């Protein structure tokens, strides 16, 4: 059985990592301008993967609700 502290910590990490990954991908796309939005570019693939991983691990709003219920 997972302790409540470990569960809360994992939710905080999921929220933080998904936010940082998405923000970094957006900055990367902006730096590359039009090239970042081309289908199949490294930047476009990363952005798509990061958005999907945020969905699979639970949306940030759900993560925030879980985190705030522990305080």
Description:
There is one protein chain. By secondary structure, the chain is mainly alpha-helical. The model has no long low-confidence stretch (mean pLDDT 76). The protein is elongated. 10% of the residues are buried. Helices cover 76% and strands 0% of the residues. Helix 1 packs antiparallel against helix 2 and helix 1 runs antiparallel to helix 3.
In short:
76% of the residues lie in helices and 0% in strands.
Class based on secondary structure composition and strand pairing: mainly alpha
Strand percentage lies at: under 5%
Count of DSSP helices? 3
Q: Give the helix proportion (percent range).
A: over 70%
Uncertain residue ranges = none
Order of helices and strands: HHH
Number of strands: 0
Average per-residue pLDDT, rounded, comes to: 76
Rounded Rg: 15 Å
Distance between the termini: 21 Å
Tertiary shape: elongated
Biggest β-sheet, characterized? none
Fold blueprint:
Blueprint lengths: L3 H29 L9 H15 L3 H10 L2
List its traits.
76% helix; mainly alpha; elongated; 71 residues; 0% strand
